[in-house]
Amino acid sequence: MELASSTWHLSCLEVLASARVFRFLNPLAANAICGAVGEIAQIIAMYPLDTLKVQCQAQGSCVRGVLSGLRARHLGPLQTLRSMYAGCGSAATCSAVIGAAYLVTFYHTKGMLTRYSF
Fold first, then answer.
1. Predicted TM-score of the model (pTM)
2. Which 3-state string (H, E, C) describes 2-44?
3. I need a labelling partner for 87 at 20 to 30 A (CA). Which of 5, 55, 74, 110 fits?
């Protein structure tokens, strides 16, 4: 489904550039922030699923078996959620650095190639 309005297609860089707070940032710094925020969002969304996958592989069982094991430990919903996100902080920190480096490299290289292309 295509969106008719071009305002829906704003990139993270354009959003940061339009905010008055971020007008002092150069484009490379804005790209680094966008990459870091994107990677942190990805880690927060996918970390519990990855935790389940790793536990399934370690125990040699399916998701249902891992979840029933969690219920057998009589953990409440908050403790279960906390155990699913254990270690998320260090993973998010590492991914933020990688995402920032990736987007800075990507957009800098893209700019150089478009500037010097024939």
1. 0.70
2. CCCCHHHHCCHHHHHHHCHHHCCCCHHHHHHHHHHHHHHHHHH
3. 74
Domain count, the chain: 1
For residue 74, how many other CB atoms are within 10 A of its CB? 7
Instruction: Evaluate whether residue 18 is within a structural domain.
Output: no
- Which residue from 98, 82, 91, 89 is spatially nearest to 36, judged by alpha carbons? 98
Residue 35 makes CB contacts below 8 A (sequence gap 6+) with: 96, 99, 100, 101, 102, 103, 104
Backbone φ and ψ of 95, nearest 5°: -65, -35
Answer whether residue 69 is part of any domain. Answer: yes
Q: Which residues contact 85 (CB under 8 A, 6 or more apart)?
A: 47, 48, 51
- Taking only the tens of pLDDT, the chain with its 118 residues reads 344 434 444 566 666 656 665 667 788 888 899 899 999 999 999 999 999 999 899 999 888 888 888 888 877 888 888 888 999 999 999 999 999 999 999 988 988 888 876 5
83 within a domain of the structure (yes/no): yes
Domain carrying residue 109: 26-115
